[in-house]
Specification:
This protein has a single domain, classed as Rossmann fold (3-Layer(aba) Sandwich). The longest helix has 29 residues. It is an alpha/beta fold. It contains eight helices and seven strands; from the N terminus they run E-H-E-H-E-H-E-H-E-H-E-H-H-H-E. A seven-stranded parallel sheet has the order 3-2-1-4-5-6-7, with helices on both faces. Helix 1 packs across helix 8, helix 3 runs parallel beside helix 4 and helix 4 packs parallel to helix 5. It binds nicotinamide-adenine-dinucleotide. Nicotinamide-adenine-dinucleotide binds next to helix 1, helix 4 and helix 6.
């Protein structure tokens, strides 16, 4: 039996790195990709012989095509695609530049779409595959994110559309929507602001990158069947909304 080939974008650090580590521990051959070449290479080296790294900016159509060409040449298949690469450029709409709107949509939404477009024919021909898109609880709405929120809402919709288009080929497409995850971004917040955020969580706690990786591992697991087009929230219950 060949190992499952799992391709993860934005895998150099943070949630993407935790996903790569977890899928490697699950027995996959992990193909890490990131636009940060030196960090990506260091992460792949740290994971060890189950990992390899190929640089790619997901917003660049030619680089995405080249990445899939390389992976196909090396492995001849792709079993799991995790679209994790993402950025924020927050500001209230009256202060947001159209360049910051375009860039967030280009990376978070079009980047995932470009990756899915390359993966789709490969997975259709295999008659198997898993696509897991990293959305965000923020698609439900956060002030200051009129670029990021729609990009992640687009990811939820893309997931549903592709589940319909690929279901008959036995390719399952799902999304994972993290909430407040304890990453350097969160650690950089003012202590009072991060305490308010923690108090607003039903669990009164933040998640870890490994909690997101756990959900991805479940959706990538060959034993997980008959779930497609869904968005799993890993957010300590924040998406429930009222009643905190
Ligand atoms: N951290 C959170 O609390 C949180 C919450 C909800 C959703 N998310 C989502 O999870 C994903 C990962 O977030 P994170 O906190 O680990 O972010 P991070 O900034 O720590 O890591 C993102 C990685 O993506 C890479 N990247 C950025 N732009 C890229 C591009 N154009 N092409 C290829 N790689 C690119 C970066 O180099 C980096 O290695 C993102 O999609 C983010 O929107 C994060």
């Amino acid at each position: 039996m060949h190992p499952r080939i799992a391709l993860i974008t934005g895998a150099a650090r943070g949630i993407g790195r935790a996903i790569a580590e977890r899928l490697a521990a699950d027995g996959c051959r992990v193909v890490l990709s990131d636009m940060d070449g030196s960090a990506g290479l260091a992460t792949a080296t740290a994971i060890g012989s189950a990992a390899e790294f190929h640089p790619c900016d997901v917003a660049d159509e030619a680089q995405v095509r080249a990445l899939f060409h390389t992976v196909q040449q090396r492995h001849g298949r792709i079993d799991v695609l995790v679209n994790n690469a993402g950025i924020t450029r927050d500001a209230m709409i009256w202060k947001m530049s159209s360049a910051d709107f375009d860039q967030v949509i280009a990376v978070n939404l079009k980047g995932a779409w470009l990756m899915c477009r390359e993966a789709a024919p490969i997975m259709r021909a295999q008659r198997s595959g898993r696509i897991i898109n990293i959305a965000s609880r923020g698609w439900l709405g956060n002030a200051g994110q009129s670029n990021y929120g729609p990009s992640k809402g687009g990811i939820v919709s893309l997931t549903r559309v592709l589940a319909l288009e690929l279901g008959r080929s036995e390719v399952l497409v799902n999304a994972v929507a993290p909430g407040a995850i304890d990453t350097p971004m969160l650690q950089a917040m003012e202590p009072q602001a991060s305490e308010r955020l923690r108090e607003a969580q039903p669990t009164r706690s933040f998640g870890a990158a490994e909690d997101v990786a756990q959900a991805v591992s479940f959706l990538a697991d060959p034993r997980t069947r008959f779930i497609t087009g869904q968005t799993i929230y890993v957010d300590g219950g924040k998406s429930i909304g009222a009643g905190v």
